[in-house]
């Protein structure tokens, strides 16, 4: 996969792209991560990429020409039709399902804005997706883009040491993830559940599923409305709800 990020601050990407899972993914040749300063496409000697909005108002607006020119240059170098993603508070909320969808693409281009906003023609005629990581405003699109890129790249085959890790992550299964434990079996009097020490893998899987359902019911019950659940899952949820009522009485 190839990922290009259009930004006025490419130095923000350096440490993230070279570190941890993203850095290892690049070393393995699984992904190419590239930060592009779209000021280089301003077409004027001052490198101006923003201007005052028509109709008045506070703040500055990113001009369409530098961003169009930058994207078109990247398109001319690409063998695949990329998804062009605008990071924007008005966009679709980024989810694990969206990350899984984007992980199947060969080329992603992220556009990170600053100032008051984007010229609307960028939205209308250039981008394929608009994404937001939450209902709050940041100073620019770089941090949201890095969040999305990390989420997408870790799903690519060969990136994680354990391929099942991404599959069982919270949100990938539609549920929050079950609790994890490791050595020692007892720490300061706190013990690992006996079932995990039993060596009985079928029983362990049943326990983990129930724990995932329990944690989701307690912390994010809204997720159960969209999760793919079996008849057995519904029975477990009903029992857990009954136990909650009894504990609360």
Description:
- The protein is an alpha/beta fold.
- It has ten helices and ten strands.
- Strands 2-1-6-5-8 form a five-stranded parallel beta sheet, sandwiched between helices. A three-stranded mixed beta sheet has the order 3-4-7.
- Strand 9 (186-187) and strand 10 (190-191) form a beta hairpin.
- The radius of gyration is 23 Å and the shape is elongated.
Q: Secondary structure elements and their pairing?
A:
Elements: E1 2-7, H1 11-18, H2 20-27, E2 32-37, E3 50-51, E4 61-62, H3 64-76, E5 83-93, H4 96-102, E6 107-112, E7 117-118, H5 120-125, E8 129-132, H6 142-153, H7 163-168, E9 186-187, E10 190-191, H8 194-197, H9 201-219, H10 231-248
Parallel strand pairs: 1-2, 1-6, 4-7, 5-6, 5-8
Antiparallel strand pairs: 3-4, 9-10
Helix pairs in contact: 4-6, 9-10
Organism: Paenibacillus dendrobii
Family: Belongs to the RNA methyltransferase TrmD family.
Pfam family, one: tRNA_m1G_MT
Give the percentage of residues in beta strands.
Answer: 15-25%
Radius of gyration: 23 Å
CATH architecture of the largest domain: 3-Layer(aba) Sandwich
CATH topology of the largest domain: Alpha/beta knot
State the share of residues found in helices, binned by percent: 40-55%
Q: Tally the helices: what do you get?
A: 10
* Elements, N to C (H/E): EHHEEEHEHEEHEHHEEHHH
Structure described in brief:
The chain is built from ten helices and ten strands.
Keywords:
Alpha/beta knot; 2 domains; 41% helix; 10 strands; Trp Operon Repressor, Chain A; elongated; 5-stranded parallel beta sheet; 17% strand
């Amino acid at each position: 996969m190839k990922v290009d990020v259009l930004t006025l601050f490419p130095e923000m990407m350096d440490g993230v792209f070279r570190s941890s899972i993203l850095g290892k993914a690049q070393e393995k040749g699984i992904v190419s991560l590239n930060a592009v300063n779209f000021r280089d496409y301003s077409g004027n000697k001052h490198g101006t990429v923003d201007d005052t909005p028509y109709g008045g108002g506070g703040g500055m607006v990113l001009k369409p020409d530098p961003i169009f020119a930058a994207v078109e240059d990247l398109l001319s170098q690409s063998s695949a039709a990329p998804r062009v993603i605008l990071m924007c508070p008005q966009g679709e909320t980024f989810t694990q399902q969206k990350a899984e969808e984007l992980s199947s693409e060969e080329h992603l281009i992220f556009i990170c804005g600053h100032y008051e906003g984007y010229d609307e023609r960028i939205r209308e005629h250039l981008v394929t997706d608009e994404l937001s990581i939450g209902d709050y405003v940041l100073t620019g699109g770089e941090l949201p883009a890095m969040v999305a890129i990390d989420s997408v790249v870790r799903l690519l085959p060969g990136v994680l040491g354990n391929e099942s890790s991404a599959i069982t992550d919270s949100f990938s299964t539609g549920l929050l993830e079950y609790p994890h434990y490791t050595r020692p079996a007892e720490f300061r009097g706190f013990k690992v559940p006996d079932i995990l020490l039993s060596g009985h893998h079928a029983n362990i899987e049943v326990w983990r599923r129930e724990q995932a359902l329990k944690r989701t019911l307690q912390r994010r019950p809204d997720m159960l409305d969209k999760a793919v659940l079996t008849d057995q899952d519904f029975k477990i949820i009903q029992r857990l709800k009954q136990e909650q009522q009894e504990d609360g009485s």
